[in-house]
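Subject: Sanity check before I submit

Could someone independently write out the structure tokens for this chain? I want to compare against mine line by line before I put it in a report. The sequence has 207 residues.
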Amino acid sequence: MKTRYDDILDAALVAFTKKGYDGVGLREIAKIAGVAQGTINYHFESKMKLMEAVVARGSKNTISSRLTKLEEVTEAETPLTLEIIVRVLFEPYNVPRSSASTGERAFTQFISATAESASMDAKRAIMEAYNEMAHVFIDAMLATEDGFDRRSATKAFLYALPTGMFGIDHAYRLPTLSMRPQDDTETTFSFSDIIAFVCAGMRALKA
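---
Independent answer below. Compare away.
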């Protein structure tokens, strides 16, 4: 059963996505949620704390599923490769809109909007929510035979994130920019292409 706390988080997610963290105030979020602003102040001591709660709720499922899958491939008999790791990392973004839940789609849109326009404080709230997951993926990269050290693996991981996300999000532009028919197989989006492109860039940074 949804509570007012959930309603506030839902409203904040919508507001932050449409207007950005810096473009909306608690009064407007309260109006969307259908609660008094004092109710928000009761649950959250600041707008930043509200943002952190939105991120914590939205990231929980994607982080959990990624880490579970990474553990599975790490323990498999097949040697762990960079391609396997990167595929696990970006698979949640490759879910078709028709298959993703409303919550997943909304949170992905929120992440994209915040990454593009938010203040550094707002971006930091998102980054810190994913730090623990980042360490696990970086450790996995160090376990491959690619020769990464901690510094190069960290740089490769951080540079790969926006590259893969942006590539997947803008895949619909392939036919238009290629000036080819929409159903041309040569301009059909390929998740494997993204994996290959990202891994090549990551390996270019290794020690």
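---
OP: Matches mine. For the report I'm noting this point. The mean pLDDT is 86.
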